[in-house]
Amino acid sequence: MPGRRVLLGVLPALALLAACDPTALDEAERETVIGLSLSALPALPEDPSNRVADLPAAAAFGATLFFDTRLSADGRVACATCHQIDRQFQDDRPRGEGLGLTERRTMPLAGVAWSPFLFWDGRSDSLWAQALQPLEDPREHGFTRTALAHEIAARYGERYARIFGPLPALDHLPAAAGPRGSAAERAAWQAMAAADRAAVDRVFANAGKAIAAFERTLRHPETRFDRFAAALARGETPTGDAALDGLEREGLKLFIGKGACIDCHNGPRLTDEHFHNTGVPAVAGLPDDTGRAGAIGALETDPFNCLGPHSDAPAEACTALRFMVRQGAELVRAYKTPSLRGAASRPPYMHAGQYATLEAVIEHYATAPEPPAGRSELTGIVFTERGRKALIAFLKTLEP
Amino acid sequence: MRHAITALGIAVAVVAIYLAVQLFTPPPAEPDLGPQKSSAAGLFTVALAPEREPVPMNALHGWTVTVTTPDGAPVTDATLAIDGGMPAHGHGLPTAPTVGGHLGEGRYRVEGMRFNMGGLWELRVRVETPRGGDEAVFDLML
Prior knowledge:
Number of strands of chain A: 2
Number of helices of chain A: 14
CATH superfamily of chain B: Macroglobulin (MG2) domain
Radius of gyration of chain B: 22 Å
Structural class of chain A: mainly alpha
CATH architecture of chain B: Sandwich
Oligomer: heterodimer
Strand order of the largest sheet of chain B: 1-2-3-7-6
Order of helices and strands of chain B: HEEEEEEEEE
Largest interface: A-B, 19 and 21 residues
Strand order of the largest sheet of chain A: 1-2
CATH topology of chain B: Immunoglobulin-like
CATH class of the largest domain in chain A: Mainly Alpha
């Protein structure tokens, strides 16, 4: 068995080599790395609550709406004002700013359709339900749902009808009325007939469904890290820009090893799509933010949730809601783990832009500060100066 | 001869010390990863099996629980509940799974399971019947 003997000779030599290079990956680490690569991403999850979710015409219409500034009170705010197409669909600000200043950091949108709950606190259970909130938020679009319906009728009537069927009669309805508007807009909404309110809600929900269909097309671009992982998966030595240097590999090993980042930033999106209290400080002057704990009630009472009248899903398909954890101390100040793809090039960080740099983020994980409320899941990690640099170098490989 | 006896004496002493150390060091708490357990008070034998293998990460999936009496008779009238978490991290399951009614031969279906971290998980299956209730605890390494 000469082949066997050669192998037996090679293996210890390889082991010796690995022992010499502290940044070499062992077999288990290699597996883990391959599992983080974009090619390991499962198929796009279905959204049974949105029957046009994968209709190209709906996605095209949704793209138009996403960039349309006229869907706002002052005609100047579109989704794209905060979710900027050339900036990973975020705005580089600590907190999103439309008609006013919001309380949270604008979230990037690549791969968002893989996330079962939307927003930092997960208070929406679908992309279409999510899209309806900024439209009526007085600090964002500050629009109303009748104004939206009128706008669609005036400018997109035919496109709408081709996807969703004919628009209802709207001419007799107020120009601006909605349950989240000004006192006058709320009163106008209350004064409308129930059937008219339901008809407008239907148009409103359908606009959300078209926008959601567009958002489902936003994918993560392949990164240097993915090319590195792809070479490992083929059993090849990564070359060219796919080859990570020693510092980057050291950071990768820290990330999946002693740094325990992978406890939460796992899977190909580098997020577990779940909520954790990591003790991120509150921003002085803002109202109390309880994170996930404050979102459960909002989710359950949202008329546009998966169980509501505008959802296309049978109740049993509403799995996010059906199996949702509804109470417990763990929910207090828990926020959704962000994807780390592209994170290195989009400071500031955390749910209200609390940290300006990655250095500050790593310092946060090193010190594990006491949370403003609830219990932090972090325990603190001792990083060497080189370790900190290495982690940051690794995060930078998650860029195209 | 004297050398041989001394050597033997030393060997015996070494073995004795080794055994003593073994005896007095508490064994590390090894996770018991078996798929079948006796419930805490011995009322039931409970088996827990994932419907997909390997157990997927970050995806909802189902499990099957099979409940029998210790002598192997299927328990067909139980009401089951499942709970769990990661003791080392101090957090629970990321979802609230449900367990349906009896399917036949002591089998029950768990829906809505999801794991969001690698490591050691604990799953607790609560079994209630008209004749009494009990709990079985499972360890799962992901």
